[in-house]
Amino acid sequence: MTKEISADQLMQRIAEEYEDLSKQLKVIAKYVEEHRQTLVLERITDIAQACEVQPSAIVRFAQRFGFSGFSDMQTVFRDAFAPAGGNVNNYQKRIRSVIATQDTPLSNTQVTQNFIAACQQGLDELSQALDPAAIDKAVELLVKADNIYVVAVRRMFPIASYISYALQHTAKRVHLVSGLGGMYHDQIRSIRENDLMIAISFQPYGKETRYCARVAGQNKAKQLVITDSQLSPLARNADAVLTVKEGTAFSFRSLTSTISLCQALFIALSYRLELVIEETRDAGAYDD
């Protein structure tokens, strides 16, 4: 390469140019995003097989972003991610290996321990991959918002419900877009330029959340997206993106890392607002 580039800068460029890539290169881009912490350990033939493309396609992908070839691109990820990524990935493999090699059924306690270990692995990876600039931007958006709309569906809905509850402890006007009665349109239509929408969505990215994001964009509202990839369709028009890779066990993804991140955002916002949670005004009981 004629110009040095960091791994974060490369991933940002991939995200910006993702829609212009061919179908094959999009598959490779997603693989790079999902495996960037272990990319330095993989051979080009292994990646090609996982993406169901020829090795030459991997080379074309690297050249598309200004590298001489795959090895040249690999160097970027070696410098940025190899030290932190190796142990996380090995630990994850050990968890899965234990499950796969059991001669007898696991006890309830063993199942619980394995799932907790997967959650711990997800939290470790979240901590290692935190982007300080993205966190700062997210908190700044929360501070400046007149109204905050929170939307998530299905598996992510409990997270939206929690962060809406937490934000109610501030003076912010908070709206949980629940879609009750199919009223997504009615609940999101009043979002405006000085408002903020928090969208929480992971693959396969709920169509309802994408609809709300489109309305927010049309109404010039700010968007804070919590998702699993910079290549998420929600990330492309967001003002701030926070990515989370949840731990997985027994084919179930945990919610631990996502809810921890949301709690941390609320605490950071409270710190900025000098809010003492325990001293927020109580209007009294329902029957007072």
TrEMBL record:
One of its GO terms (molecular function) is DNA-binding transcription factor activity. CDD domains: SIS_RpiR. InterPro entries: Homeodomain-like_sf, HTH_RpiR, RpiR-like, RpiR-like_SIS, SIS_dom, SIS_dom_sf, WH-like_DNA-bd_sf. Keywords: DNA-binding, Glycolysis, Transcription, Transcription regulation. The keyword Transcription regulation applies. The keyword DNA damage does not apply. Transmembrane segments: none annotated. It comes from the Bacteria. Pfam families: HTH_6 (PF01418), SIS (PF01380). One of its GO terms (biological process) is glycolytic process. This is RpiR family transcriptional regulator. It comes from Aquitalea magnusonii.
